[in-house]
Amino acid sequence: MIISHRHRFIFIKLRKTAGTSMEIALSGICGDQDVITPISEEDEKVRREMGFRGPQNTLIPFRYYRQQDWKKLIAGRKRKHFYNHMTAGEIKACLPGDVWNGYFKFCFERNPWDKVISHYFHRNRNEKFRDIMDYLRHDHGDDLHGSKAYMIDGKVAVDRIFRYEDMEGALTELTDLLALDKKL
Question: Could you read off the pLDDT of 144-170 as tens digits, one per residue?
Fold first, then answer.
């Protein structure tokens, strides 16, 4: 998940939609005030090798805390932070209205069957399942329904849902929308 104050966008990361690759690419255009959530150590290494910014500004400022956030902080003494797969509703609750309403919000979605197959291979790296049918019968892991991440109260909360299957066109469009000097 990335919030770029520099380029006025919010990238919501869905599962199995090249989200980590997008985070790495987008971190290359981020400034020092932007929010960049951590990814796996292996992927952080790739990001460092490319010379891009790593995780930064993930603690949510106290000025954005609501009453229930203060109660949780006092009870558990744990700061609230931005994290990788936050939903639109969670992000909106942590930002001032002018940021949420004024920034371009987007995500990538993928053909559901392709997403399931990708998830199967990700989950089966250590041969946990005998085959795809075993996975379909027994995996109760990550929620792959991306729409829950980019909807609030049953309504789409992002400005654009790009198709994973049209990544090349999406990157060109994003470059124009964000007024970038060079293509992502």
Answer: 556 788 999 989 999 999 988 899 999
